[in-house]
Specification:
The complex is a heterodimer of chains A (117) and B (109).
Chain A: E1 4-6, E2 10-13, E3 19-25, E4 31-37, E5 44-49, E6 56-57, E7 64-70, E8 73-78, E9 87-94, E10 107-108, E11 112-116
Parallel strand pairs in A: 2-11
Antiparallel strand pairs in A: 1-3, 3-8, 4-5, 4-9, 5-6, 7-8, 9-10, 9-11
Chain B: E1 5-7, E2 10-14, E3 19-24, E4 32-38, E5 45-50, E6 56-59, E7 62-67, E8 72-77, E9 86-93, E10 97-99, E11 103-108
Parallel strand pairs in B: 2-11
Antiparallel strand pairs in B: 1-3, 3-8, 4-5, 4-9, 6-7, 7-8, 9-10, 9-11
Classes of the chains: A mainly beta (117), B mainly beta (109).
């Protein structure tokens, strides 16, 4: 069965800290995604990657960076955490590579609820 | 950011009743529409990927229809059960997915 694992369910950090959120998938998927979800808003795409060492900005990349050194792992980095980055973060993966038009569903992790104090 | 709207934002249904709700999306440059179910404390789970105008998909008591010309999709739950309580997300695909804010369904026993 498909499995996307996020390293933490809950995380509390302080303003100004550098924060790492880790995501690992075991399906050999090419594509990986980071979203945040806030009340009343849909999932918003932060960054995505369609191959190792490749990354593309999503709709709200400001304040974030990503790293994909291995196919199975996609890390989201908050360079200097701020209170407005308190949110639920979801990682997802899908097959298809750069041809994202292939209509495969995304497989999600359980989410990390991040609080920045 | 593409405008994908879902209505209503939330609804309450009596166990055994049927219900439906809407996803609206841009009618141009359509590639696919996704539906996901997101139960509390779990990860979103894919229900359907719909690509053709007039598509109808069914999974158990849940079904969905698609109208790409007018830019909407309906999701139907027949004979609602407490385990159907969840937030239902739709997502419009061009080269990435743009999600609506979801419809939260609460089924009362």
């Amino acid at each position: 069965d498909v499995k996307v694992t996020q390293s933490s369910r809950y995380l509390v950090k302080r303003t100004g800290e550098k924060v790492f959120l880790e995501c690992v998938q075991d399906m050999d998927h090419e594509n990986m995604f980071w979203y945040r979800q806030d009340p009343g808003l849909g999932l918003r795409l932060i960054y995505f990657s369609y191959d190792v060492k490749m990354k593309e900005k999503g709709d709200i990349p400001e304040g974030y960076s990503v790293s994909r050194e291995k196919k199975e792992r996609f890390s989201l980095i908050l360079e200097s955490a701020s209170t407005n980055q308190t949110s639920m973060y979801l990682c997802a993966s899908s097959p298809s590579g750069q041809n994202l038009l292939l209509n495969q569903p995304q497989h999600f992790g359980d989410g990390t609820r991040l609080s920045i104090l | 950011i593409l405008n994908v709207e879902q209505s209503p934002q939330s609804l309450h249904v009596q166990e055994g009743d049927s219900t439906n709700f809407t996803c609206s999306f841009p009618s141009s440059n359509f590639y696919a529409l996704h539906w996901y179910r997101w139960e509390t404390a779990k990860s979103p789970e894919a229900l359907f990927v719909m690509t053709l105008n007039g598509d109808e998909k069914k999974k158990g008591r849940i079904s969905a229809t698609l109208n790409t010309k007018e830019g909407y999709s309906y999701l139907y739950i027949k004979g609602s059960q407490p385990e159907d309580s969840a937030t239902y997300l739709c997502a419009f695909r061009d080269y990435k997915l743009s999600f609506g804010a979801g419809t939260t369904v609460t089924v009362r026993a």
